[in-house]
Amino acid sequence: FESAQTRSRTHRAPNERDDSASLGRARRRTSRRARRPRRSRARVRTMFRLTTTSPALATRCALGRRIAGAHRARMTTCNARRHDVVGTRVVGARRDARTRWTGAGASAAASDKANATASDAEPVKLLTSDESENLLKIRHTSAHVMAMAVQKVFPSAQCTIGPWIDRGFYYDFYYPEGFTDQDMKKIQKEMYKIIRKDYPLRREEVSREEAERRIREINEPYKLEILEAIKTEPITIYHIGDEWWDLCAGPHVESTGKLDQKAFALESVAGAYWRGDETKPMLQRIYGTAWENEAQLQAYNDFKAEAKRRDHRTIGKDLGLFSLQQDNAGGGLVFWHPKGAHMRHMIETYWKDLHLARGYELLYSPHVAKQELWKTSGHSDFYSENMYQPIKVEDEMYQLKPMNCPFHIVVYQDGYYSYKDLPIRWAELGTVYRYERSGTMHGLFRVRGFTQDDAHIFCLPDQITDEIKSVLDLTEEILSTFGFKEFEVNLSTRPEKSVGDDKIWDTAEGALKDALQMKGWDYIVDDGGGAFYGPKIDIKILDAIGRKWQCSTVQLDFNLPERFDLSYVDRENAKQRPIMIHRAIFGSLERFFGILTENYAGEFPLWLAPIQVRLLPVTDEVSDYTEGVAKKLRDAGVRVEICTGQRLAKLVRTAEKAKIPVMAVVGREEAENNTLAVRTFKDGDVGTLSVDEVLSRVTTANATKGQSF
């Protein structure tokens, strides 16, 4: 059972550098150029061809022009006809090998999601990941235009893959010299030229042999590998005019002029191994973003700025919550500082208390186990690349645990159960260790040692629906307590290759659907997207700025009970296999803490804040009174501290910088009247309140998990 942290082994995201200044200069140059007398089209075309100095690129262009005439009758624009594998009504996240490399697959379409507009009557909204089909075409075409521009400016660069992605696109190039900031500006300038020429995008179908011949002619070895991975025929090619072409299934816009050159930007360059394999060449991945109009691009830039303001790595350091000691301890290992550790303690305590109240029992398991256990579970065969190397101890081999599941199974094996004992619900906040490449780690979102809030339920087949419904209820309660009330739910069903008979799969999938219907939740079906050992439900939460985060998972497992020969005794005193349900709500406690930090931008709910009240005495004369107030609050469970030694204005600024929820000024008048002058981070001045009133409000928030004072 794999946590949300490592479900997708992607490369690091692009940095947040803003290229708006260079874009502005480019636009001003474009504006000045527009006022000059326009050259004839023939002259422009001639100048463009003169820049083609590379023999390989010249061959590509010549080949494109040669085949264009022969195939023009059969070539159509992308809107006239699309390849069968292309579709925007895909539900879930599965795409076949072909749609992955072309970027042709689309997120689940959601027509009720508002698209961004430039209307004065309605503010511009950043589109969600359920983008319009037109926007996906824009991004896919932008990736092709960028690749064409790169090979115009840097003819020795070799193309690999270039899909659209959430809020943008990228293309990977083999170019050992690397791309600099100045190179990026040159590439973007060349893209402007291609857009202004308004080249048509045309689709062609060829045989596998013809595609291979053309690829060899232009010397693109990575494209040959891609061609080998395509299992269907005919092979589709998209042309940009007669100048450039690429293997692609589409879809695209009709012509390059449909791209708004004021609505895209190149963002960053990152390293990426070919096929994600460290043994293969390092590629240069150029990230870009593309939108339908300039207003959408501006909304995206605003979104990026807000996301940067909420970066949990910066907030964690500023508020003294945690650190990652790369130099001292190594990458991906989290050090919780006192304030962050206290917050973690409160989260864990809440989690444990709620689970005990819901009929779970708590387990604690070791951090290592003999290698034989991981062989029995199948981790050694199917998960070894994520595990650390074995450790030899007294002639026996041990390994750090990457998952908690086998440990809970070992506990089950230690008992004897009848059908009357089921369901059994065991939960653990278990620390696991997984190998992550140094280039993929990112703050708390991807680390090497983390805590999973694992639970495993052993039940009868006719108990599945009730147990899943109970898990969904618990998930909703916990996520709502932390302020997440909007979810996206995905149901993944049986893949082509699976273990277990048809009857148990049908029963399990039906139970998951019934539980979701009982909850009244809408969900997306990812047909065939389940694990080989069972179907699952994934829940994504929506944060304060509209981002989706994969957290909770409910996974049925028909594999491990078989591998470990688990059993219970039925009514006829015969042994039967129990149904095993894996379940996590946070996924990874570290990752969830990072999401929580960014959701609140460090302005945590009152019940969760590491320091709830800061007392600010304005004179030494009230020191005794201030100490007495602090003791009274502290004795009632309020997290309080006293800050002195500066002028009042600076004390307040310091408290606000630390995002303290409640600031209480203490002067002579407050000391005489047993009151406090209260100011909150969220609402500013509240007024003068009695100490008992302040105490009551904070303790009520603690008891009810209240968000504010």
TrEMBL record:
It holds the Pfam family HGTP_anticodon. Belongs to the class-II aminoacyl-tRNA synthetase family. GO terms for cellular component: chloroplast stroma. Transmembrane segments: none annotated. The keyword Electron transport does not apply. InterPro entries: aa-tRNA-synt_IIb, aa-tRNA-synth_II, aa-tRNA-synth_II/BPL/LPL, Anticodon-bd, Anticodon-bd_dom_sf, Thr-tRNA-ligase_IIa, Thr/Ala-tRNA-synth_IIc_edit, ThrRS_anticodon. One of its GO terms (biological process) is threonyl-tRNA aminoacylation. PROSITE patterns: AA_TRNA_LIGASE_II. It comes from the Eukaryota. Keywords: Aminoacyl-tRNA synthetase, ATP-binding, Ligase, Metal-binding, Nucleotide-binding, Protein biosynthesis, Zinc. It is an enzyme of class 6 (ligase). Residues 1-42 are annotated as: Disordered. Residues 311-605 form the Aminoacyl-transfer RNA synthetases class-II family profile domain. Gene3D superfamilies: 3.30.54.20, Anticodon-binding domain, Bira Bifunctional Protein, Domain 2, Threonyl-trna Synthetase, Chain A, domain 2. This is threonine--tRNA ligase. It comes from Ostreococcus sp. 'lucimarinus'. The lineage of its organism: Eukaryota, Viridiplantae, Chlorophyta, Mamiellophyceae, Mamiellales. Its EC number is 6.1.1.3.
